């Protein structure tokens, strides 16, 4: 199994809130993707591809500021329904992960639920980092 | 003092790890900003201006996605780098908030990377603070 295919499977196994995971190349082209069984796409794959391409471009822009802010580690974009995570990989590829962003049942108000579960996301980031991809 | 100017000052008081705050219009022009003078991390003004233009454009894309892809409201964006975490939050249809937070690894953590991943609770509390901000 190709190493990134393996990474995607490991990410899906690692955390149940992951809905979709994919790896793009340095130009933002989709190379591999993995979709959780039983979960339907909110966004059509063609639109996700366009988002991945834009995200790759954002990381290229960030790289021009590395002298002042350091190298990029990860990004999180939160929408009401999902959070999107991108992680630049060492060989120029990029990992893209979509996770659920549903409010927690016990939270006092809705917005709080959207902001929490960051620990889960950071554990995913650390997990990817520890695999040395 | 304008409402948003007040927000920036409150953010600086609220969290010592906040290095810099700025509010831009949709073209990325700086309208208000604050900088923590005693910070060891210095980001040139030109760099901040460049970032605001880039992030404003990115937020326009995100808001288009919000409308077309049924993802719900776009809430915030965090980009983590070795030295700083960059947080952007749309305040209304015409204004974007940029916050730089110190991302120096915590001294007592076992590995360097871990230090960069923590302190997210503080950032979330900043986002919550901004979302609940009323004059």
Description:
The complex is a heterodimer of chains A (133) and B (135). Chain A is of the alpha+beta class and 133 residues long. Helix content of chain A is 41%, strand content 26%. Chain A has a 5-stranded antiparallel sheet with strand order 2-1-5-4-3, sandwiched between helices. The longest helix of chain A is centred in the middle third of the chain and has 19 residues, at 45-63. Chain A is globular and about 45 Å long. Chain A starts with a helix and ends with a helix. Chain B is an alpha+beta fold and 135 residues long. Chain B has one domain (3-130): 2-Layer Sandwich (Beta-Lactamase). In chain B, 40% of the residues lie in helices and 26% in strands. In chain B, a hairpin with a 2-residue loop joins strand 3 and strand 4 (84-90). Chain B starts with a helix and ends with a helix. Chain A binds chain B through residues 42-43, 47, 51, 54, 58, 61-62, 65-66, 68-82, 101, 111-112, 114-116, 118-119, 122, 125-126, 129, and chain B through 42-44, 47, 50-51, 54, 58, 61-62, 65-66, 68-84, 86, 100, 103, 113-114, 116-118, 120-121, 124, 127-128, 131. Strand 3 of chain A pairs antiparallel with strand 3 of chain B, so a sheet runs across the interface.
């Amino acid at each position: 199994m190709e190493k990134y295919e393996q990474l995607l499977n490991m990410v899906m196994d690692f955390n149940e809130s992951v809905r979709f995971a994919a790896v793009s190349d340095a130009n933002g082209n989709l190379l591999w993707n993995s979709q959780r069984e039983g979960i339907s796409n909110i966004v059509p794959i063609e639109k996700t591809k366009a988002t991945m391409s834009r995200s790759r471009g954002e990381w290229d822009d960030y790289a021009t500021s590395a002298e002042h802010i350091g190298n990029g580690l990860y990004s999180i974009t939160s929408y009401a329904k999902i959070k999107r995570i991108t992680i630049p990989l060492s060989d120029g590829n990029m990992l893209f992960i979509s996770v659920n962003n549903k409010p927690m049942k016990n939270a006092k108000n809705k917005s709080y639920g959207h902001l929490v579960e960051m620990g889960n996301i950071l554990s995913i980031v650390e997990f990817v980092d520890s695999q040395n991809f | 003092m304008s409402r948003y100017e007040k927000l920036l000052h409150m953010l600086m008081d609220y969290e010592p790890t906040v290095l810099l705050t700025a509010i831009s219009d949709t073209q990325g022009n700086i309208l208000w900003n604050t900088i923590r003078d005693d910070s060891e991390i210095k980001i040139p003004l030109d760099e901040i201006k460049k970032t605001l233009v880039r992030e404003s454009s990115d937020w326009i894309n995100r808001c288009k996605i919000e409308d077309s892809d049924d993802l719900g409201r776009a809430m915030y964006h965090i980009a983590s780098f070795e030295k700083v975490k960059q947080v952007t939050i749309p305040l209304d249809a015409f204004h974007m908030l940029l916050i730089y937070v110190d991302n120096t690894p915590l001294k007592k953590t076992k590995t360097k990377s871990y230090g960069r991943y923590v302190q997210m609770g503080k950032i979330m509390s900043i986002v919550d603070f901004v979302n609940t901000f009323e004059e």
